[in-house]
Amino acid sequence: MVGAKIGWKLVLMAFTIVVSLVANKAVTTAWKIGSGGKPPKGNQAGYIEIITWAVASGASAAAAKRFAEDRAAKYWLKSTGSLPPGYEDKPNS
C-alpha cells in the first residue's frame, strides 16, 4: 500500500508539472495578446493591472491543478485497474 501511495504521488506530480507549465504559458500568452505587454511584476504596474493578473493566473493555476488531478486519476485507473490511493468510488448523483 505504501508503494501505491508513493507511485500515485509521483504520477500526480508529473501530470501537475506538465499541465502547470502549459497553463502558465497559455495565461502569459493571453495576457500579452490582450494587453500588448508582459505580465506585471513587482511595482511595475498599477493595482488594477496587478490584481487582474493575480486573478487570471490564480484561476489558471486552480483549473490546471484540477485538470491534472483528473487526468492523473484516469491514467492511474487505466494503468492499474483501481482508483488511486485515497479515492473512493462515489455514485453519480
The Rg value, from CA coordinates, equals 18 Å
Helix content: over 70%
Count of helical stretches: 2
> What is the total tally of β strands?
0
The major sheet is characterized as:
none
Report how far the terminal alpha carbons are from each other.
Answer: 30 Å
Mean pLDDT score: 89
Poorly predicted segments: none
Structural class: mainly alpha
Strand content: under 5%
Written as H for each helix and E for each strand, in order along the chain, the element string is: HH
The backbone outline, from C-alpha atoms, is elongated
InterPro entries: DUF4235
Organism: Kribbella koreensis
Pfam families: DUF4235
Protein name: DUF4235 domain-containing protein
